[in-house]
Amino acid sequence: MKHLTEYRDADTARRLAAEIGRIATRPWAIMEVCGGQTHSIIRNGVDQLLPPEVELIHGPGCPVCVTPLETIDRALAIAATPGVIFCSFGDMLRVPGSRENLFSVKGRGGDVRVVYSPLDAVKLAQAHPDREVVFLAIGFETTAPANAMAVKLAKQQGLRNFSMLVSHVLVPPAIEAIMRSPGNRVNAFLAAGHVCSVMGTWQYPPLAERFRVPIVVTGFEPLDLLEGIRRTVLQLEQGRHELENAYARVVTERGNEPARRVIAEVFAPVDRPWRGIGVIPASGWRLAGAYRDHDAEIRFAVSDITAVESPLCKAGEVLKGTLKPNQCPAFGKECTPRTPLGATMVSSEGACAAYYNAGRWSDSGAA
Q1: pTM
Q2: Would you say residue 367 has pLDDT above 70?
Q3: What b/e sequence results for 45-55 when a residue is b if at least 16 CB atoms lie within 10 Å of its CB, and e otherwise?
């Protein structure tokens, strides 16, 4: 039965691709916002099914990849502090800072621990009242509710030894920044279904109208992506620019309202620097005033740490969609998963990692 399902999916994929080919009459460039979408596209060859008129551009939708270098260096400084238990999801441990990563800090004796939830870090703070426990909170809107609940719980329980280094980033301001950037050639966006499952779709119609670009919410399976692309191309060909929800089985207009309420209570908007892109106004969250006692950046006085990117790394152009990973001169040479120059090569959602793992070495015929 599994094989029959796979055959049906393959037939449906070919049908959708053929329909996109019939609809498209001129070149269109569509940006998928999320790194998870990028990996699904490259791993499953979705881009290779599309007609030559339709180009997929990989956007800045990997939260690990857009975390600024100075935030990584601040995390490294805190993790190397005696008496600190530094907690992170596993995908952050190999992300390079200016000189090292969290694995190397751990190798030198730093107490760096992989956790599967921010609540694991709260439990560590409960179990080790004599130690400072810090959680590295990286992510788009998707991970914000759990992080907000962890801080709220720590405050309710009076855990003064728990703090959070926050580097949350937001999708709608990133779309606006891309549309305003010089040389932008994006005609439409595939919005990330998991972000919209939390925040809803209500923020996107004004962006679609202001910049006259279709925005279609999709999931992450190949058929979800192809259906989203089909709807996007149809809008472009018809001269429409609307928000369309192709992931209605998960996403609603208002999203998860209890999650949004706890986010609004615990976090406050802030101008946030994006790695390789620069500062985008009101594109991130930091802890709100009532929770600033749990702000690791303040507690460990690391705000003054700055950093300079490697001149060889072109991750900024990749994240803005102006360069494909295999168009970077360092791709697969100076920059590999073992010797990464930037987070895009080691993150599980990084576009460079997707191309490397799929063997997309040549620029010819790339997505």
Answers
A1: 0.89
A2: no
A3: ebbebbbeebb
